[in-house]
Amino acid sequence: MVSPSQTRNMLHQYGRRSLYVSFVVAVASTVVFNAAYVWPRHYAYENFFATYDPYKRMKEICDANKGYMHTCPKELAKLYESKGKEISQKH
Asked: What is one cellular component GO term in this UniProt entry (predicted)?
């Protein structure tokens, strides 16, 4: 038979060890997730918006003349002309 000192509080020891291990794994997985996924995306978005010019992009889209963006000024002018509406040229 096993001596009582080896089996005494065995459940508490395993439970305590499991809590420590799970805490370390949780913290480590959070750090790895942030370092591998969140931070690279954050910096990529930061870089994109630092160099993004919406007016230049709108000009590129409208100059492509593919007609997929019907809110371009040129496309709206064509649409108004086809419906017989006048477009004001005031600036």
From this structure: mitochondrial inner membrane
